[in-house]
């Protein structure tokens, strides 16, 4: 099979034998079944496409397409592969959000982690009511009940064309036979090793992960093999569940076998909105990202006169974007949380009338004072930046935009003994104490306080744009609270400034999130410096460096031809696969 390679470095496509199997139902899921061969459908695109965080994920997608799999099969296979080859963020010990467009219809599955049954609102506070430093970041108490396996199982058995064993085969092989460790992964592992030293068992499993080494993970291979044979049942009610619960026993954490057995991924209605001739399909709560993205795009459209003639990334452009973002983050902190616990006013926050009113509050000349910016219906929320995203389109025009996370790089640093599974530190995404800023300087309210079975608020924004019922754009990124502002800027670059896809992704990105007051964060990849910095500061802003501002993975379709780009800031690859 010929690959049109848009990678930043070459990759080898690995061949796997086709495995046929019967999936085993998970708890109260559908009964065991083997998928009958799907009726052939005419292709509507010239090729499929993948944009993903590493070369092994791209190889996996190519294998799945070659076997006749669709975008959902490829997405699930990629997710499990990244759990092996991109362990700093790819995972089966975390959770995430997936936006799908299948046979012309939009879908969304929430497989975000949940707080354990024993979790309490004040679990990270000391006797004086102060936040205990590090308790929500390292070790077993930081871990939320993982959702990735349940989410992948639900998506693939509903929409996949291949068998469950076929989609897990690439990940199993990479775990059993190994993969070559990149410089970036080795560097991140070394930094994590220092951070987790003396706190977790991280080095027991990952000390050998050095650049250029063929790194094997036999415990993880055994877990993936059981999941391939037994479905999600193994992870939530089988041997793997027993091993995870055992790692948490004896005061090492809160998750029990009961927590795992009760976990469910949830199908939700995606947020949809019309903008600029496109239909936006994006993440609903417990993500704040979909609402934030819609507000940003529509508010900017309402301010078209203010933006007229303003050059991209000029001082005035940066000021206007900051004014918009300031109001979006004020709403985010006050109104957003898990919709199963808190009624989120989605329709009001995304209504044209409300957004127009917020746009009218923008000061086009000077930064609005913090005291003057309040949540509009009546300060953002905790989330680390080290997530990962991939975008997939198949030749039938189906699309998947998937963002998943273990929160920080290598999550809590805790590896469930006997599994090789890196467990998340997602409990840090809750508001440990309303009104107190987290590690990103953002604050939250009671809407995101800790409760058993509750899902923490997220910024993950897996997004699909359609036009006339056909997929036009599939996009997403990691980046914590910077996720939807990064996606917003890339979409602006594409559609408002008509930049080519690669240039739109490679342009400067900056970020403002209400707090700290009038602070613009810039990235080393394309810094705000020199005359530009002096002019932005003259407007009354403080400039602050941030290490990371997204790893965009995007596919654009024009006519029947997809184009795919992986962010030059990461080690990802993008392929168009005929």
3D structure, described in words:
With 578 residues, the chain is an alpha+beta fold. Helices cover 32% and strands 17% of the residues. The chain has two domains: 51-268 and 398-431, no CATH class; 282-383 and 460-577, Orthogonal Bundle (Serum Albumin, Chain A, Domain 1), CATH 1.10.246. It has helices at 55-66, 71-85, 148-159, 164-177, 183-196, 202-206, 218-230, 233-237, 239-248, 257-262, 289-302, 304-307, 315-335, 346-349, 352-360, 483-495, 501-506, 530-538; strands spanning 4-5, 48-52, 95-102, 105-111, 179-180, 214-215, 266-268, 271-275, 278-282, 387-393, 399-405, 415-416, 421-422, 463-467, 470-476, 510-511, 519-522, 542-545, 553-558, 561-566, 573-577. The protein has an eight-stranded antiparallel β-sheet with strand order 1-21-2-10-11-3-4-7, covered by helices on one side. Strands 8-9-14-15-19-20 form a six-stranded antiparallel β-sheet. Strands 16-17-18 form a three-stranded mixed β-sheet, covered by helices on one side. Helix 1 (55-66) packs antiparallel against helix 2. The chain is globular and about 60 Å long. It starts with a strand and ends with a strand. Mean pLDDT is 91; it is low at 4-34, 378-382 and 438-443.
Quick structural summary:
With 578 residues, the chain is of the alpha+beta class.
Structural class: alpha+beta
Radius of gyration: 22 Å
| Number of helical segments with 4 or more residues | 18
**Beta-strand residue fraction:** 15-25%
Integer average pLDDT: 91
Q: Which sequence of strands runs across the widest sheet?
A: 1-21-2-10-11-3-4-7
Low-confidence stretches: 4-34, 378-382, 438-443
Beta-strand segment tally: 21
What is the approximate shape? globular
Q: What's the N-to-C terminus distance? A: 8 Å
Give the % helix.
25-40%
Overall tally of domains: 2
Q: Mind describing the biggest β-sheet?
A: 8 strands, antiparallel
């Amino acid at each position: 099979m010929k690959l049109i390679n848009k990678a930043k470095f070459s990759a080898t496509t690995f061949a796997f034998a086709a495995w046929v199997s019967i999936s085993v139902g998970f708890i109260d899921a559908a009964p065991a079944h083997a998928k009958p061969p799907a009726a052939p459908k005419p292709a509507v695109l010239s090729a499929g496409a993948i944009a993903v965080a590493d070369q092994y994920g791209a190889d996996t997608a190519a294998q799945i397409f070659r076997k006749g799999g669709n975008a959902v099969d490829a997405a699930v296979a990629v997710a499990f592969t990244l759990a092996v080859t991109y362990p700093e963020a790819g995972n089966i010990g975390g959770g995430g959000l997936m936006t799908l467009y299948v046979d012309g219809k939009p879908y969304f599955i929430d497989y975000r982690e949940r707080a354990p049954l024993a979790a309490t609102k004040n679990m990270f506070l000391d006797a004086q009511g102060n936040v205990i430093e590090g308790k929500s970041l390292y070790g077993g108490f930081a871990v939320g009940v993982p959702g990735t396996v349940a989410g992948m199982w639900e998506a693939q058995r509903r929409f996949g064309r291949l068998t469950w064993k076929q989609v897990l085969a690439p990940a199993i092989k990479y775990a059993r036979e190994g993969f070559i460790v990149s410089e970036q992964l080795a560097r991140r592992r070394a930094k994590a090793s220092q951070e987790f030293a003396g706190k977790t068992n991280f080095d027991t499993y990952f000390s050998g992960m050095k650049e250029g080494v063929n790194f094997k993970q036999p415990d993880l291979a055994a877990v993936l093999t059981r999941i391939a044979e037994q479905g999600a049942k193994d992870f939530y009610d089988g041997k793997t569940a027993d091993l995870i619960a055992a790692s948490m026993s004896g005061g090492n954490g809160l998750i029990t076998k009961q927590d795992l057995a009760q976990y469910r991924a949830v199908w939700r209605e995606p947020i949809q909105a019309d903008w600029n001739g496109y239909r936006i399909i994006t993440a609903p709560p417990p993500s704040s990202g979909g609402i934030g993205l819609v507000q940003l795009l529509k508010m900017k459209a309402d301010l078209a006169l203010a933006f007229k003639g303003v050059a991209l990334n000029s001082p005035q452009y940066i000021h206007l974007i900051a004014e918009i973002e300031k109001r979006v983050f004020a709403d985010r902190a006050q109104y957003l949380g898990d919709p199963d616990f808190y009624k989120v006013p989605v329709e009001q926050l995304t209504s044209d009338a409300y957004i127009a009113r917020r746009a009218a509050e923008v000061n086009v000349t000077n930064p609005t004072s913090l005291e003057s910016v309040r949540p509009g219906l009546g300060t953002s929320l905790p989330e680390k930046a080290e997530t990962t995203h991939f975008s997939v389109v198949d030749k039938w025009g189906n699309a998947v935009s998937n963002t998943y996370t273990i929160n920080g790089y290598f999550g809590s640093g805790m590896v469930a003994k006997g599994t090789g599974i890196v467990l998340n530190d997602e409990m840090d995404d809750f508001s440990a104490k309303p009104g107190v800023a987290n590690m990103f300087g953002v604050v939250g309210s009671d809407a995101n306080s800790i409760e058993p079975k509750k899902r923490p608020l997220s910024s993950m924004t897996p997004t699909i744009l359609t036009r006339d019922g056909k997929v036009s754009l599939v996009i997403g990124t990691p980046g914590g609270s910077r996720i939807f502002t990064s996606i917003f800027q890339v979409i602006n670059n594409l559609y408002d400034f008509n930049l080519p896809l690669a240039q739109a992704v490679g342009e400067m990105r900056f970020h403002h999130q209400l707090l700290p007051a009038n602070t613009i964060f810039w990235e080393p990849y394309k810094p705000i410096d020199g005359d530009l910095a002096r002019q932005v500061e003259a407007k009354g802003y403080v400039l602050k460096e941030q290490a990371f501002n997204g790893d965009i993975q995007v596919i654009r379709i024009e006519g029947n031809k997809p184009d795919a780009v992986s962010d030059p800031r990461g080690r990802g690859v993008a392929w168009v696969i005929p």
